[in-house]
Amino acid sequence: MCSLWLLLYTKMRFYNIIKRIILFVSIFLLTTSLKKGEEQTAANNLLYAQPIDSAIARNIDMDSCIIGLNIHKTWSFDYKDETFPNDTICECVIKGLAIESDSVFYIIGGNPAFIAKYNGTTLLNRKRIDIDFDKSYNALCQIYDDSVYFISEQNKVIYSLDNKFNSSATAYNLPMEAEDSIVSGRMEHDSYILVTQKKNTHGTNSANFTTWHFCYPNHIKKKYTEETNLYAHIPGYVPLREPENNFFYHGIIDGYRLFLTPPEYDNCSIIVADASGDCIYKDTFKQLPPIAAVSGYEEHYGALQSENLRVVSKNSLYMTGYNNDTHQFYILEYRIFK
Q1: Is-contact 233 260, C-beta < 8 A?
Q2: Contact 92, 329 (CB under 8 A)
Q3: Rounded Cα gap, residues 229 and 226, in angstroms
């Protein structure tokens, strides 16, 4: 009898040991399988993961330093005032704008033409310049060293005037032929670029373009025949990597490239791009003048709005416009970055 109980007890111990071994092996196999599954999932995630878009990464950083397109400062001038350099017959027409510092402006206009220097809205100085600007539609004006430079397009002459208006304007003829007509231009702080088109014997423009790159006052740096790309030769310019319709280059702010659409009443957009031409910020202006500043009137095209009346200076963008009901000319400063 004892032998029988001993035999049964031995078998039960043996079965329990076998069950424990089976349970241990099962747990081990299950754990190994789960771990392999996690490793495979991680491997699959690495295999199919898309790299973070560099523009998105930049935008994450940009969000902390972009202010947006709200107006930082506004200056308004009564353009009907006799001291303001404007041809009052044609509402508000400006033939040049240069910005020396945060709130020091030079404005050219009127018939006869005057140049006025302002600190904010306070008139510092005003000087008559007997120069014909009637058909100077590009509003070419810039500060270089201690002088203001401006161009009479119909005469193909660049003028310089010391920034205190102590002397008369000095004229420098541009080395162009009589049949060359200036059709566009851009003045930078160290050089300027003009695009000309030759007129044929009937007085109409042919397709013969030339792009001129000058050092101040009138020294040819480079001449590009049969070319109309004004922006390609501006220092620091890069095209948008993904071009968008109607956006034009306007300069560099805090190392970033600025592109604008021509303002049409309350509609104007901006693109900020990096040095590779990738868009990192795009927005639409919420605050604009009632009417963008006008640089002249042409028989076939009507009111003309020169891109040179939208100025990038240091780390700000300045937009200009007017209100023909209140007779106010506006300069609006936008600071895109903190």
Answers
A1: no
A2: yes
A3: 10
